[in-house]
Amino acid sequence: MSAETPPTRRDFLRSTGQIAAAGALTASSIPYVHAGVDETVQAALIGCGGRGTGAAADCLATQSKHGPIKLVAMADVFENKLKNSHKVLNDSYVGQMDVPPERRFIGFDAYEKAMGCLKSGDIAILTTPLAFRWVMFQKAIEKGLNVFMEKPLTADGPTSRKMFELAEEATKKNLKVGVGLMIRHCKGRRELKDRIANGEIGDILAMRAYRMHGPVGSAFSGPKPANITEVMFQINRFHSFLWASGGCFSDFYIHQIDECSWMKGAWPVKAQANGARQYRGEDIDQNFDTYTVEYTYPDGAKLFFFGRTMNGAYTEMSSWAHGTKGTAVISTSGHTPGKVRIWNNQAATGDPAWAFPQPEPNPYRLEWEELVDAIRQNKPYNEVKRGVEASLVTSMGRMAAHTGQVITYDQILNSKHEFSPNTDKLTMDGPAPVMPDAKGHYPIPQPGIVKDREY
Ligand SMILES: NC(=O)c1ccc[n+]([C@@H]2O[C@H](COP(=O)([O-])OP(=O)(O)OC[C@H]3O[C@@H](n4cnc5c(N)ncnc54)[C@H](O)[C@@H]3O)[C@@H](O)[C@H]2O)c1
């Protein structure tokens, strides 16, 4: 072990004579030790839904390029979710799934038990709704675990401040942390970013982004059925509740607000917005079904964002940048493939001046390869600060729509309304962070009436 080669986990345990007694070490006594190239990295999946199953698959798929990796524990609050996810992964990743029944955990403390199956330097995959991010990230840091966690990271100012602090703690402990804004790892978008930085479309004056389609995810909810507790209903329908997800606005729109801000090379400093509930019938969720936001950047440039979840209306999902010399498409019709192109005119007509060659590598795979490479090579890697910034500016636009006020970055950052201060103390049948009235209705935003908080 040379001074230039950081110790691997095995070196550390051997030098302290603790290979046999490794299990007896307490988390706080284990310094962060990165896995050597040939050692098996272990992962635990916490939140075994659609994205969690996908993220675990992307994690396991790194084995062919980055060395042995396996899933050793799974955690969820719903048994059927864990069961389905386990089956899907077991069918596809034979030999890399080592999750016997005793390492499948259910409940609000399941995440801690799953993390307890890992050693310092292993990976916790956090793919629950965002409300649990800070709780689980804090525990992972305490245990010296590397982390992959999904976007968004926060839905309000107080939690963002907490996550900024945790980001610094993770860096101090040399933990590697990936955040699921996978577009940042897309090769096409990276080349586009370089070309924009080199002046190929001139100075960006305006950007526009659209996410307009019918109702998706759990953003629309009818009344709570009798056979589920209040808190479990809200977690299951997390896009419906602002505390759990930041609503459809945070959960769906963050990618495009982030990719536009990345291309601009700045975060917006303020937002004003419109939004309304139009065709809601008996739906009890807290979302609007249209949102229109004007974001302003420090140099006065604008991003106009259009969000709609409405059947029968025009659909589009794309992001654009307009510069003094031309136009770029950042997303063509979804997150991937981006099909990024540049035109030397504003109308984006005629042959593009440049287009990234197709097919594009999958950014969901790339984000994992870069994280695992950083873990193997012990390279600095922490995406949390910009993940929180992206979450905050997204919340800034949502708060502008929900209050009917101009909201600045400083206002959202310093706002006092924490949607779910006690996420770490939730119980299956206890009260939920937002409770219904006698008619089963939850508070919905009232722009111009409730102005200093969203509900
Ligand atoms: N990067 C992307 O493109 C992308 C795509 C989809 C989802 N996501 C993100 O992934 C996250 C999950 O979304 P999803 O679509 O997979 O939702 P999902 O409902 O399919 O999965 C979430 C899972 O977490 C579980 N869960 C909830 N609270 C838990 C807790 N306290 N402990 C353990 N498990 C818990 C749920 O039971 C569920 O199985 C969201 O933050 C979402 O924004 C990102």
If you had to describe this structure to a student in words, what would you say it looks like?
The protein is an alpha/beta fold and 455 residues long. It folds into 2 domains: 9-183 and 368-383, NAD(P)-binding Rossmann-like Domain (Rossmann fold), CATH 3.40.50; 187-361 and 391-425, Dihydrodipicolinate Reductase, domain 2. 33% of the residues lie in helices and 18% in strands. It has 14 helices and 15 strands. The chain has a 9-stranded mixed beta sheet with strand order 14-13-12-11-7-10-9-8-15. A 6-stranded parallel beta sheet has the order 3-2-1-4-5-6, with helices on both faces. Helix 6 (133-142) links the parallel strand 4 and strand 5. Helix 2 (50-61) packs across helix 12. The protein is globular. The termini are far apart. Residues 1-30 have low confidence and may be disordered. The structure holds nicotinamide-adenine-dinucleotide (NAD). Nicotinamide-adenine-dinucleotide binds at residues 46-52, 75-78, 81, 108, 110-111, 127-130, 132, 150-151, 180, 182, 235, 251, 335.
